[in-house]
Amino acid sequence: MYQKILVPLDGSKRAEMIRPHVRKLASRFQSTVILIMVIEHTYADGIAETQISLSEKVFKAKIKDGESYLDKIASKFRDKGIACKTLIVHGSVVESIIETAKNEEVDLIAMTSHGRGGLSRIFYGSVAAGILNRVDRPLFIVRSRWEE
């Protein structure tokens, strides 16, 4: 049923909360798991919400850190006998996830939602909501609440 499962990760513990669910699905259907991390060239400064471009050095460091992070997670899937592939992509998060889902011909996108609602969701945006409103394939979302 699900031969390829795309799992967007951002390096957070919240995003990683999808892993046990994906592990069960992948084991049951002998799926290949595709871990993806999107690295943007810009970020919001958090104060004036100004977009600031990353230097080439910082951008390359983010890519290297992302590859190391995804490799560590992929090895945990492989240790359980689950085929796993990793991808680092650049661009808008929602656009990149949707484009990768099409290019890789995945059967399911599995991810967490941070569970924000109301003004918080409007202010910060929502990757899960953006994908939900535009994706053309099944989407499995687990709401994750993280006590900090």
Features:
two-stranded antiparallel ribbon; about 45% helix; Rossmann fold; alpha/beta; 6 helices; about 150 residues
Brief overview:
The chain is α/β, with parallel strands linked by helices and 148 residues long. Helix content is 43%, strand content 25%.
Layout: helices, strands, pairs:
Layout: E1 4-8, H1 13-16, H2 19-29, E2 32-39, E3 42-44, E4 51-53, H3 56-79, E5 84-90, H4 93-103, E6 108-113, H5 118-124, H6 127-132, E7 139-143
Parallel strand pairs: 1-2, 1-6, 2-5, 6-7
Antiparallel strand pairs: 3-4
- Percent of residues in beta strands? 25-35%
Structural class designation? alpha/beta
What would you give as the CATH superfamily?
Answer: HUPs
Helix proportion range? 40-55%
CATH topology type: Rossmann fold
Average residue pLDDT:
86
Any idea what the shape is?
globular
**SSE string, helices as H and strands as E:** EHHEEEHEHEHHE
Spatially, the strands of the biggest sheet line up as: 5-2-1-6-7
The N- and C-terminal alpha carbons lie at a distance of: 37 Å
CATH architecture identity: 3-Layer(aba) Sandwich
Descriptive overview:
- The protein has 148 residues and is α/β, with parallel strands linked by helices.
- The chain has one domain: 3-Layer(aba) Sandwich (Rossmann fold).
- The protein is 43% helix and 25% strand.
- The chain has 6 helices and 7 strands; from the N terminus they run βααβββαβαβααβ.
- The chain has helices at 13-16, 19-29, 56-79, 93-103, 118-124, 127-132, and strands spanning 4-8, 32-39, 42-44, 51-53, 84-90, 108-113, 139-143.
- A 5-stranded parallel beta sheet has the order 5-2-1-6-7, with helices on both faces. A two-stranded antiparallel sheet has the order 3-4.
- The longest helix has 24 residues, at 56-79.
- The radius of gyration is 15 Å and the shape is globular.
